[in-house]
Amino acid sequence: MAMLAPRPSILSVEPYVGGESKLPGVNRIIKLSSNEGAFGPPPGAVAAIQRMATEAHRYPDGGSKALREAIGARFGLDPARIVCGNGSDEILGLLILAYGGEGTEIVMSAHGFLMYDITGRWAGCRIIKVPERDLTADVDGLIAACGPRTKLVFLANPNNPTGSILPQAEVDRLRAALRSDIMLVLDSAYAEYVDRPDYDAGARLVDATGNTVMTRTFSKIFGLGGMRVGWGYAPAEVVDVLNRVRGPFNVNAAAMEAAVAALAEPGWVEKNVAHNAEWRLKVTEALTATGIKVWPSQGNFVLADFGTADRAKAADAHLKSRGLIVRMMGAYGLPSCLRITIGTAEENGLLTEALGAFMAGIR
Ligand code: PMP
């Protein structure tokens, strides 16, 4: 029996493997591998999910109206120009499906977020990865890489996994230099953690220029990664396209209610931002003091470079033996690095202590 073959581009993609959440023989796991936010879900969101359990037989609101209105009110945006998705991954993928595809090109930074590459490849796009300067996107390189087939340029700002950020003037320069019919996707998944006064998560550029989209998520600062809610803010024409290609009920009812409740949680963002700023610095300083190179980060994680892939692997094994799970960066082309999420004060303490012991052991 011959199996039906999928489109060839599908087989160029490896199935996505998420980070581990269990370790054999280890009772207490400390998971610092997926940038999930230090404090768990907001209490109001937990209550909303519980409340929705008895409504599980009902289809959700297919247009995510209440959520779009809550997002619009929070961020000062027109709800009609917002599209919600099953994580911002879905919005990114829909943009690629709608505007990319066979015969088109996607331009991204060499260590940009992996999903642009994965979704772009299975959609049949050619992916052009532009070398970086100090693990930061190079605007001149991105501009130069665009050709007649380029449909989309993706920029995560701040970027995962590097933590690097482009100054706002550079983002503006990128948009101004791109052909107006190229879609610039500003992926602002980590926007809340940025402490640069000039930073704009993207709404201003979306409003000022035609083909610009901003994507955001409830998976990071709002602590709802497991609920899968993200959103995009885009010109009306792009919203219309996304509404044609998205599934009719692409955000589930509990996720929608949880996201609305998360937006309403008093002091949540402020508390998380303050904690992250404090501990991002403390973790950076503590690891640097042990001889590990830590790249400056504007996200809720740091990228720690151990110099060689073997040493990064050994550090990872050492952490695992203590129940600490971080993310190896081989799949991102950074095999000498581990990406470490900022956790609670206790978790961060255990992490820095464990890596201190590891580094002391190899001296
Ligand atoms: N963009 C970036 C830069 C990310 O790091 C992530 C999460 N890893 C996403 C988008 C996707 O997030 P989600 O689908 O959970 O909204």
From TrEMBL:
List residues, modification N6-(pyridoxal phosphate)lysine. Answer: K220
Q: Which SUPFAM superfamilies does the protein's record reference?
A: PLP-dependent transferases
- What's the Enzyme Commission number for this chain? 2.6.1.9
The record's listing under InterPro entries reads: Aminotransferase_I/II_large, HisP_aminotrans, HistidinolP_aminotransfase, PyrdxlP-dep_Trfase, PyrdxlP-dep_Trfase_major, PyrdxlP-dep_Trfase_small
Cofactor list: pyridoxal 5'-phosphate
Q: Reaction(s) catalyzed by this protein?
A: L-histidinol phosphate + 2-oxoglutarate = 3-(imidazol-4-yl)-2-oxopropyl phosphate + L-glutamate
Q: Does the keyword Amino-acid biosynthesis apply?
A: yes
**Entry keywords, A to Z:** Amino-acid biosynthesis, Aminotransferase, Histidine biosynthesis, Pyridoxal phosphate, Transferase
Which pathway does the UniProt entry assign to this protein?
Amino-acid biosynthesis; L-histidine biosynthesis; L-histidine from 5-phospho-alpha-D-ribose 1-diphosphate: step 7/9
Cite a single GO MF annotation: histidinol-phosphate transaminase activity
Pfam families documented for this protein: Aminotran_1_2
EC top class named in words: transferase
* Domain Aminotransferase class I/classII large positions: 29-354
Please name the HAMAP family in this protein's record: HisC_aminotrans_2 (MF_01023)
Family, according to the entry, reads as follows: Belongs to the class-II pyridoxal-phosphate-dependent aminotransferase family. Histidinol-phosphate aminotransferase subfamily.
Q: What is its quaternary makeup?
A: Homodimer.
What this protein is called in its record is Histidinol-phosphate aminotransferase
Taxonomic source organism: Plastoroseomonas hellenica
